[in-house]
Design brief:
Length: 170
């Protein structure tokens, strides 16, 4: 798997090389940046994840790429998974006390990537229903992280074993 959260010329070169060598490519940009670079990168991307707060206005632009899985987070409301014209809404995992939401989106990615890698990480496309366990694992991890301060608060305060236990809950 190749993961990146920013697009530069060298990063897109690396994405293309990774894809050409069989890697799954996961892109999680925090801003749109250079549209021409994004257009060049998209054919190499398997999963595109972003926040509706930052890139929501362009979310529909990716619907024309049927092989692209798009995950759009909507904060406390939940998230949407898209593949072509198929849509799946996943409500957020609720918790009794939120301390800090920093890093919640990253934790969704951690859960989904972990789920994909534990299954061999070689498939290029999934049905939306097939992705649900990975999405749910990420949402559980995100909710647990929101109980702690900092983007990696759960890991810092409870350790990787606790994070692993959350990822493996059914």
């Amino acid at each position: 798997m190749f993961y990146t959260d920013r697009l530069t010329g060298p990063t897109v070169d690396a994405m293309e090389a990774a894809r050409a060598n069989g890697a799954l490519v996961y892109l999680e940009p925090s801003r749109l940046g250079d549209r021409a670079l994004l257009e060049r990168a998209l054919p190499s991307v398997d999963i595109l994840k972003f926040s509706s707060d930052r890139l929501g206005e362009v979310a529909g632009a990716f619907d024309a790429i049927p092989s692209l899985t798009v995950v759009v987070t909507h904060g406390a409301a939940g998230l949407e998974v898209r593949c072509g014209t198929d849509r799946l809404w996943c409500s957020a995992v609720t918790i009794d006390e939120v301390t800090d939401t920093c890093g919640a989106g990253d934790m969704v990615s951690v859960g989904l990537i972990d789920w994909i890698l534990r299954r061999g990480g070689r498939e290029r496309s999934w049905g939306l229903d097939a992705l649900l366990p990975g999405i749910a694992a990420g949402q559980r991890l995100a909710a647990a992280n929101c109980r702690h301060v900092g983007a990696r608060g759960l890991f810092r305060e409870r350790g990787r074993e606790q994070a692993r236990a959350i990822l493996e809950e059914c």
